[in-house]
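FIELD: query
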Amino acid sequence: MAKQAVVRLQLNTEDILKALDEEQDTAFFVGGSVVGDAVEARARDVSQGVADRVFVVTRRQVKGKPFKKYAGEVARRGGVVIGSSSPLAHLLELGTKPHGNHPGTAAKPFIRPALDESKEAAAQAIGDALRTQLEKRLK
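FIELD: result
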């Protein structure tokens, strides 16, 4: 029977937490992009203009052209924001009540359904990205 080499990796919790903190932005961007792609695909059924303006923002990475307020908030707090910079996006997602001479519009949700259908794939993508980044760091 051949002997197997055993490699012992000495890490403490602080090392792991520091690495996770430094690599989470990449992982959130990867997972956010999965959801962003689903939002864009669903938005095409509602409005091409809304679909063309879908964005994903993390502290260090941006896909699309987000509202500046979202980019600033993410820079302060971390995490990921996914949305559309179209001024019509929220009106289509939530609908409108009748007002003035306008009869209102029915909601045509595309963001929530996209999130619901892609959340497991996004979670898997985040986990895979973290695992890959941590393996690279720990070699």
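FIELD: remark
The chain has a mean pLDDT of 87.
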